[in-house]
Amino acid sequence: MLTSQTCGYPYARWLSDQVDVIAAPVYDVEGCGVSEQDDEWLRMDQPYYSSVFIVRASSDFAKLEDTAGKRLALNGYDSLSGFRCLVPLIGDPKHWFGACRISGSHRASARMVFDEVADVAAIDAVCWALLKKHEPNVVSALRVVGWSNRYPAPPFIIGRARTNEMKNKLPSVLQKAVSNASETQAIKSLFLKDILPANNSEYLSLSNL
Q1: How far is CA 153 from CA 6, 18, 24, 62, 183, in A?
Q2: Dihedral sign, CA of 199, 209, 9, 51?
Q3: CB 3.0 to 4.6 Å from 206: which of 12, 73, 139, 150, for a disulfide?
């Protein structure tokens, strides 16, 4: 395998000595595209993303802080968008919530809230956009109570042993692939707008979450 994409938190914690970051995606959905230092929330030109906090529409929760002691659905403890993104806002989620229930995916987490198996979930902005497009019946029964901070988008990575020439060329190849296919259904279905060069240093601080 030449390149793949990973979550930023596992990269920073466990993969940074095995692979290098070469690029990052820019997604054209609400909650993506700007840095934490940028006040223009909807400007879609940078490889950042965030998570939306969802509850059942029928619940009494008005904000994330109202869910203390309740049941969290999460895709995995090593997920930046589904778990670690909560840390700066509430501290250790395992202590904040009354129960943490692993779903295995963002879609499954949303359905656990929908099915009243859980009370709240953090869903990354792209998965939330996909849910709104493909499962409107589920989304209509849910409600947004907040957003996480914004973080570097899940990076494209390459094996540490690959040549520097390949590492330097691949970001532009990926970018051209998206640009040349920007009108295709496959690219549109992923809400992928661009792929920009990125490097290891932009992700290493995520290990502190």
Answers
A1: 9, 19, 6, 27, 22
A2: negative
A3: 12
